[in-house]
Amino acid sequence: MDQFAVKVFVRLRPSVLDPAGEATKSASIKLGAEGIKSLRIGKMIEVKIEGNGEDEVRKKIDLLCDRLFANIVIEDYEYSLEKL
């Protein structure tokens, strides 16, 4: 079996308001970080996973993203994987 390191990035869809991002943007500006036009908050998940090749691992990661890591109604995800 091959082992892979996967980084999954989950973020709200552009059409969904991001209150945490807006609050962080406002606080950043108050701290003197002028010029911020947009700030959105997401999450990054690191997974080490085994599988019989990249295709099998991608299927496993897609399943995890669709059912666990992301709320696919309001969030998008993307990931990168690296064979270890």
Summarize the structure in words:
Its EC number is 6.3.5.3. It catalyses: N(2)-formyl-N(1)-(5-phospho-beta-D-ribosyl)glycinamide + L-glutamine + ATP + H2O = 2-formamido-N(1)-(5-O-phospho-beta-D-ribosyl)acetamidine + L-glutamate + ADP + phosphate + H(+). It is an enzyme of class 6 (ligase). This protein has a single domain, classed as Phosphoribosylformylglycinamidine synthase subunit PurS (Mth169, Chain: A). A 3-stranded antiparallel sheet has the order 2-1-3, with helices on one face. It has 2 helices and 3 strands. By secondary structure, it is an alpha+beta fold. It is 33% helix and 36% strand. The mean pLDDT is 97. The longest helix is centred in the C-terminal third of the chain and has 16 residues, at 54-69. The chain has helices at residues 19-30, 54-69; strands at residues 2-12, 42-51, 75-83. The N and C termini lie close together (11 Å).
- What does the overall shape look like? elongated
* Strand neighbour order, sheet with most strands: 2-1-3
Helical fraction equals: 25-40%
Per DSSP E runs of 2 or more residues, the count of β-strands stands at 3
Report the end-to-end length measured between terminal Cα atoms: 11 Å
Q: Mind describing the biggest β-sheet?
A: 3 strands, antiparallel
Q: Would you list the SSEs in sequence order as H and E?
A: EHEHE
Secondary structure class reads: alpha+beta
Give the amount of beta strand, in percent: 35-45%
**What Rg, in angstroms, do the CA atoms define?**
16 Å
Q: What value does the average pLDDT take?
A: 97
Give the number of helices: 2
Subcellular location: Cytoplasm
Keywords: ATP-binding, Cytoplasm, Ligase, Nucleotide-binding, Purine biosynthesis
Enzyme class: ligase
GO cellular component, one term: cytoplasm
